[in-house]
């Protein structure tokens, strides 16, 4: 009995398993995640030969060469790798052409004020303990160690028997890999069924623009750029490259790792060399060296993942400017030497983009990472063929550069056309303002009475402890100030909501009372506080020494960061504090507090700071001569949801914090102490953190709904009892 009654080729077996697995996964849904372990067994069986193969093949291949040949492989192979890196990053710069010109804005992100931490490339590439590197699958370090040992073997005498033993081990490892590959249909079916069954299609809808752009650029690399580099600049034909690479590409896509197809890459490239009668000691050694070495350095597939930074910038309304492209290109190459799980968070941080965008990337990683591994497999084959051809002296560098230039032109044109297509085919509505004004309190609430006016306390109650008055009256009287996003504001339903209101509802609940809420302006506060009309004032009120002389404050419950509100096209002009200070005739707008009592003149001593009384006037362009406004980043970010043509920047090097507190009536020590104690308690509870996540960062929590499947939702099959 045969497992292949249709006599399918290995490639067709893999394709059939992949398609069948996806179909079964979509049909049965999340229950197929339970067979993922079968695919993991297959992957681990493939992986068990890879590290030993890298070690013995590099040492034996380099050790059998003379030094001149080793240098030739290093120089030409390294030059080709660098060439592909630069070509890949230049191609990625065209990806924003595929992104529609949609209005966007976002809540505050802590990444606006965070500092960058560089990835640890040293431990990844320097094998201080080779055995530790091998035990922890640190492939780059293993490759570096193997290269050093292989080069050192060049000058060793009486090495033939040792090298022959290594070559025999390498052949045995290839035989094991070939045997394991025979169960590829089973492993790939399990992997694809589990992936398709557990993929969150609803969440991926948010990523569709990125996925379309990624897929289009991926096709350009796979179908044109990479194979045509070989077809135009070497003796190999386009058809040969596609035919001999498809098994490695599909297997890498299905398994999600390039590591397992390294033996396939070596085998198929050597086969192509033999077909063109280009096999000799140097060309075969070049393949054995380039296969594991290329895997250990960034591939085109890895660099494709860096394009998510461009998408994140577009998605959050913070597009990178051309002046930032050099930094994007250089950092993209350097950080991709490690894992994308390190590179992407670092680059998000570097470009001041929200770190939670990385979670959005992970949602689509089942799709994009598999495409990346497939592209990396193609990258390995192309580097090996170009490298072996260069060693043989049959590579046309002029045609290589011509192909690269043509590829860039085609990429730019197709990305532009895709952008037009997506703009007109995908309906879009800016929802930032709607999201803000439709927000409701998600924590527990108490009954609320909205008041136009409140009677002052009687002379007797004015002498009593305010906490006793509140408990006896059964209501907590709260005043909030206008224009206090996102701390206290009226939503579209007329309810007063925001971070402070979530906290105040909890305070009232703990007191066992309801709320009376009134909106006041600053000039009304003193009279309302002195007469006992109100018990507490909220609204993200910044605390200062000068204000503390006039008002009684609670303990601070949050620190805000001073930032600037600027037009979207001016964000880079105001990105560096030291450079801002050098600007001639700098004019900044500020609310009165920022000038008289706050940190405006402290931060910008030579600037002409102009007082404005209405924040909305600045957003509406009534001060065209003023290019930036001082404001706290947390609050300003909420305002940009209403006015999305403006953005918030916290210039690099500007690190000024503003404590935020509530205003309380004077001479109410017991009430003040109670509020301070309550705030201290809440600082260690989930209430303040949840309120911060929701109102400041704009993160909402949704219960995960089981993914739709035909078997469960149409046929009514119940899989809940399957363990």
**What's the CATH class label of one domain?**
Mainly Alpha
How much strand content do the residues show? 5-15%
* Number of helical elements: 34
CATH fold field value of one domain: Proton glutamate symport protein
Helix fraction, binned, reads 55-70%
Mean pLDDT reading? 85
Folded structure, characterized:
The protein has 723 residues and is of the alpha/beta class. The chain contains 34 helices and 13 strands. Helix 11 packs antiparallel against helix 20 (397-425) and helix 12 (238-255) runs antiparallel to helix 13 (262-275). The mean pLDDT is 85.
Keywords:
Proton glutamate symport protein, 11-stranded mixed β-sheet
Quick structural summary:
This protein is of the alpha/beta class and 723 residues long.
In terms of topology, how is this protein built?
Elements: H1 10-28, H2 36-47, H3 50-63, H4 67-92, H5 121-125, H6 130-135, H7 139-154, H8 160-181, H9 184-198, H10 201-204, H11 208-233, H12 238-255, H13 262-275, H14 281-296, H15 300-315, H16 325-335, H17 340-350, H18 357-363, H19 365-391, H20 397-425, H21 432-437, E1 448-450, H22 459-463, H23 466-473, E2 475-481, E3 489-490, E4 496-497, H24 499-511, E5 514-520, H25 522-530, E6 536-542, H26 545-550, E7 552-553, E8 558-567, H27 577-581, E9 587-590, H28 592-596, H29 600-603, E10 608-611, H30 615-619, E11 628-632, H31 633-642, E12 646-649, E13 657-664, H32 669-683, H33 686-696, H34 710-713
Parallel strand pairs: 1-5, 2-5, 2-6, 9-10, 9-11
Antiparallel strand pairs: 3-4, 6-13, 7-13, 8-11, 8-12, 8-13
Helix pairs in contact: 1-9, 1-12, 2-9, 3-7, 3-8, 3-14, 4-14, 4-15, 4-19, 7-14, 11-15, 11-19, 11-20, 12-13, 12-19, 13-14, 13-19, 14-19, 15-17, 15-19, 16-17, 24-33
